[in-house]
Every structure is written in structure tokens, then in C-alpha cells.
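Dear colleague,

As promised, here are the two records you asked about, laid out in our usual form so they can be pasted straight into your sheet.

NAME FIELD: protein one
SEQUENCE, THEN STRUCTURE:
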Amino acid sequence: MSIGSATLTLPSRLSDLPRWLEGTEGFSALLQALHAGQAATVEGTWHSSASLVTAAISQHAPTTLLIVLAHPRDLDAWDQDLASFTGQRVTLFPAWDAMPTAETILDEIANKRLRVLRQLESDHPPRLLVTTIQALMQPVPSREQLSQQRRRLRVGQEIALESVVAWLIEQGFQRMEAIEIPGEFSQRGGILDVYSPDAEAPYRIEFIGDEIESIRQFSADTQRSLGDVKAVEIVGQASRHGHGDGLRGHLCDYLPPRSWTALVELGDLEEAGKHYLERTADITGLFSVPSVFKQLVSIPSVRLSSMPIASLETTYQMRAESVERFSGDVTKVRDELDAAASSDVVVIACHNEAEKKRLGDVFASGKLAQSGRLRLSLIHI
């Protein structure tokens, strides 16, 4: 990958690359367009270069950057790439393979989707949120629906334990001897354990009479306390389900103000969305592809494309080479890189220290290494 002038200090880690990219021609104009509330385009994004430029853009996003992919199979690769390039945790918003119904009892995908909504509403929303077009075509509870299905409890509150238990049962929670998964609760005297579907861990609420004395989170596996909290919001089970319960909200409704979106390969997104509708037996409640795009481009957005596209938007050209153009023989790759990057800096990502050492030995005699324009970096930070 060509990333800039050889006169600059070479990056020692993959997380240094986004800042390096910011110094390339046209990148500042790209950021200016997004900050001005306009759309922009990035061309020439092959493979991990797409996640690299997205990582660089994310460093300047005022709040959340929502990244939209065409295929669920690409989520893990983007997760790893963005974590390596930014050093930040990446949040994934998943899609159901098949929309749940009102009869669905246990659904981890629904729990994960609810957890993302909670994070977006918090004081510290995710900086990097990655999802697919399919996930965005599937509805979420609207803010009004969630508000109606939430119960807030706080330390010092006067409330009968029996009324809280009755509400949990009404909302579809299962009473257990000991809770293990979201959607369960247990009661032992004045101690109520409850695992809200949108929570990372269950809560233990201790009552003295009709007063809440304490609330703390704990590990369902070890029972170890994870810390006291002053208040908790429990979300009802009904909010987990799909079009059988008439969900009316969209993920974009929960994005913080001044969020940006990144649309990876617009043509692939459209095709994947159409294919999803074609193979779905009941599309009741699903969003159409045009309506999803309308939501996504209503806020500052950037389109990423491997090929040049006709656009009047501010366009940034990513100088990247597809890895398929290089042969498999490492010694031949050395010579091909010497020829292809005659005046550029080259960074090669290695999976481990052993691979880094082996490639270092092979490339040591090449022009790139001898001129100081080659850097071997580890994929993981």
C-alpha cells in the first residue's frame, strides 16, 4: 500500500497508519466536507485499505461513525482491522437470520441489538459501530416503545417487591432458581436477581421491606460483584421480538447528534438488500432499501468504493494495490514490491513476531528495506 512520502517518519504500529494517511493529498478536503454536513466519496479502497481509511475518518467524527457492510461474513474482518488500526473497541450491530416472532423466548441476537441501543443512548456512545444492510432493514423498538417497556429502579425507592415481580412476569421474564441468561429472574426473600435483555450482566436488588437498599451488578458465572449502582433500568421482554410485536423504530433514530455514516460499496449494499427481501418469506415490518439509504444519507456520509465512481461530491483517492497482483513466492514479492513502490513507503502487516522476523530476513536485501522505506508491523496492537 502506498501511504505517503518517504521523508515522513515510518509508523511502528498499524495504529499509526491512520494519522499517516491524514497527511496525504485530499484527505483534509474529505474531512471538511463531512464536518460541513456534506457527503463525500473515497475511491480505490481495496480490502483492508477500506477499513484503514475508515479508521482515519473515525478519528475526526464528532460522535459515532456508523459503518455499513453488504455481507455479514465481513463483520469479523472489519472488527479486527478497525481494532488494529484504531486501538479502540468496535461495536457490532447484528442482524437476525430469520425475524423472531412473539413466541420467541430466547434470542441472543435481540439481546445484542438492545444492548447497542442502550449504548447509543448512554453518555458514552460507541465511536465505531459496524453493521450490515440486512440489520438496518430490520426494525428495532422505537424510543416510545422502549420507554413503555422499561422499569426504572433506584436505591432508596419505596416500592413493593411483589409488584416488581408481577411486572417481570407480565413482561415475559422467566422465574428461575438461579439466573444464567438475559430474560430470567430469581427471588430469595428480599433479594431479587434480574437479567435485563439489554444488560451486559445481571443485577442484584436487595429490599428491606418495601425499600430498595442496594443495587449491584454481578457475574452470572462466578456470582462475583461487579460494582454498586444507584439506579437501573430493566427493559421488558416484549421489546426483544420482531415484526410480530410491531417494532417501529430504526437504528438511525438512536444515533447521537453529529454522527457520520460510511457506506462500503454502495452497489453491493443495494444488491444485498434486494436479495435479503427476495429470500424473506414475510417482509412485514421490514424497511425497504431506499428508505434505509434515505436514513443513512440524511446525515454526513462517505461512500467507499474500490472502483472510480461518477460523483460531484468531494472525492479522496486512496492509493492502494490489491494483494492479488503479487505472486505467492516471498522472494518474488520482494522484487515486485521494489518495482511497484519505486518512491513510496510500504507497510506489511504480519500475524506474529516469527512471521515478522522471517519476512524481515527475506526483504532485507531489497531496495525498499535498504532505502528505509519498508516497515513490518504486527496486525494486533
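NAME FIELD: protein two
SEQUENCE, THEN STRUCTURE:
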Amino acid sequence: MKSGAIILCAVWIGAGCGRCHAQAAQRVVFEATSPYHHIQVIDQQGLRVLSFDGSMETRMSLRDPLTGHFEYIEFFHMPWLWNSNLTNVLMVGLGGASVQRAYEHYYPQTTIDTAEIDSTVVRIAREHFGYKESSRQRVHVMDGRVYLRRTETKFDAIIMDAYAKNRYGSFIPYHLATKEFFEMARERLTTNGVVAYNVIGAFQGWRADILGSVYTTMKSVFPNVYLFPAKETLNVVIIGTKSPEKTDFNEVQRRANALVQARRVTWPAFRSRVSSFRADPPVNLHLSPVLSDDFAPVDGLLRKTGK
């Protein structure tokens, strides 16, 4: 799904945690090497963890698979604020299927297509994280951009949580963070469609350059772009909307209340997570380049900010 020593993955949880909580009692349930990752499934302290190359990618409670996940995952429910009738969603990156489980449980009228490049990850999700394909849950074993180029389907939301790894740590695959990619994504969205994109980084300091560049690139394609920073980890989910109507904090609160009262959204933490909404851009916006297929210096940004 995504792809440290301090944990670098789809989520950054800080130096104090150690590398996958190595000091805690743990049991390796499964281990394999795919063309993309060295993969482990680890049980520890009532949680099941999916690890790529020593990082933590997915976390799931063994007692209740709908809980135990990383905080930033919950911001992938925010597209409902701009499209109150989500009927189909594309997820790029499967991992341990935290998002897929949540959408299937809380939104029974919504179908979820997933593009996952690694067939080994698909097998692990099925065998160790309870992922089940159905008429509402479909997986396509291919690169996310290739899938978008080939499909004719229009989606109400596209959720991006795909990471790879190099010597500087985890990074967004270059071809999934360019203006051309976002233009393609926009064309695959319905009228009120939304892109939700997980970025590992901070507003100032560590990886602020990457956050700023992805924001700037999305803003060059989408009329409005908003931010949902996680409190527990250094992750920010960026929302890009096709709607030209600007939204402020009071309006998203009003929409959240209406969605919950109408039982359109039944996920319990929805209103509390909406409070993280930010309409202001990153402070380094004027220094952040638009990334393109010809100019996508993510590796260079990692060299500057990954130490």
C-alpha cells in the first residue's frame, strides 16, 4: 500500500516509539519478500501490524478490526463533506485494508475499488487482515496511475495512500504526485468529486518542502484545497475538490452535523475529526514548486528534509 530508523512509512509516529516497537513482545505471523517490499505481519499487544521493509504500514485491533488503525486514516472520511452522496470510491494502495473495512461497514451504499501494485499485499490482506472481495469490494492488481488511465469509471472520491521506499526513507511515488497525475484524477471524478491524499510531513521543518509541493501541485489543478493534519503523527491529508465554492470551518461543521443527523455518515468519530480542518495553505507555499512529469524532485526534497 505504502511504503525509517525512526519509523518512516505511510505514517510517522516519532522517535520515541522505536522501530516497530521492537522492545514490545511481538510475534511474526507471516513473512515474505515481494518484488516491491520485504513484508511482515506482526502481532503485538493486541494489534496486528503490517510492516514493509521495517516500517509500519497498517495497524488493526485483533479484537475489533474496525479499530486500532492510525489516526490519519480517519481523515479519509472527509470527502463526505463535499460530496454527501458517495456511491463509489477509488483507493490507491491496499495495505491492510483499514479504509476499505471502514467504508464497507459504515457506508453500505458505497462500492470501493482498490488499485494495488503488489499481488503479495493483496494475498496478505485477504489472509491476515480480513479483506474480502465482493460486488462492493474490488481489487485491481496494477499501478494506480495505470488504472486511472485505463478505466472509464468516474468516482465520487479518489483516496491516495501509496508509498515507496529508498535510502532516504518513504516517499510518494513520483508519478503519483505530479500535475499530470492530478489532471488525470480530476477527469476521473464526478461533478462534486474529491481527492484525499496522505502526505508524510509537517507544516514547518521536517518534510515541509514535500507537503508544500504536493499542496501547490494540487492547487494548480483543483479550485480549492484543504488540509487535515493529524495530531498523533506527522501526517497531513490534503483534500482537493472540483467544486469552485470555497468552504470555511463553520461550513464544514454545519455539513458534518447535517450528515450525522441524516445518518448519511454513521462513523462515530466523524464530527470530532472535522475539527482538524484548515483552509489556510502551508506557510512555505511561495517556495514550493509545482511538480510535473518533467520536474518531480521528490528525491531531492527527501535529501533536504529527511535527516
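A couple of things worth noting about protein two: The chain has two domains: 15-61, 71-305. The domain at 71-305 is CATH 3.40.50.150 (Rossmann fold).

Best,
R.
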